Amino acid sequence: MISLKHVSKWYGHFQVLADCSTEVKKGEVVVVCGPSGSGKSTLIKTVNGLEPIQQGEIVVDGIAVNDKRTNLAKLRSKVGMVFQHFELFPHLSIVENLTLAQVKVLGRDKTAAKAKGLKLLERVGLSAHADKFPGQLSGGQQQRVAIARALCMDPVAMLFDEPTSALDPEMINEVLDVMVELAKEGMTMMVVTHEMGFARKVANRVIFMDEGKIVEDRNKDDFFDNPQSDRARDFLAKII
Ligand code: ADP
Ligand code: MG
Q1: Which subcellular locations apply to this protein (predicted)?
Q2: Which residue ranges have their beta carbon within 6 Å of ligand 1?
Q3: Which ipTM value was assigned to this complex?
């Protein structure tokens, strides 16, 4: 579903990604972790073309992301992305947030889009809040709306960039629970997170990054039980 081959990227003279290669198969959940500044956000942003690369090749569901002829808007509609900050439209109600891109990008009819939005709102347990505005919801609720909004587009894969790190502790689990459900239903996911309980529960593989490189890309149990690099060992010792 997602393939990165020898991906390198520079900001000016600074190399932020160095020869990164990995694959995410359909239905796989891959957790990306590593120290701050190691290139995790940049890596997952390259997957839906939010960050261009200078070397290598990225293919998502058969689409060559870095081919100039690729329609990036179409690609992004197929790959849902959820960031640390919820990025809902503050002046639109929850149901309008869920409907807008379906109508504008996919050309869905408004009634069908609204029905789909309400269905997904129910799935994240927020049916009662359809007519509220984002500012009236807690951070955890807003993040669940952001996930529902991405799902409204029928994505082939979902990318998450530290979706719980801006949340108060008591709200983290309500968001992780939605993500666990999604993983169990077979969604293909790349998740940047330091929530190692989540990784233990649902990840198939863990990618550990350091200084722009993929240092480990291994089966979850192998990674946790027997990290191969000193860097990953140090990292795990600090966060678990
Ligand atoms: P992580 O998500 O692992 O914390 P990032 O991918 O955000 O790491 O950043 C990796 C490195 O690239 C950091 O050193 C960061 O300062 C740098 N960086 C990120 N975005 C930019 C940018 N737009 N311009 C220049 N440097 C950047
Ligand atoms: Mg980051």
Answers
A1: Cell inner membrane
A2: 11, 16, 34, 36-42
A3: 0.97
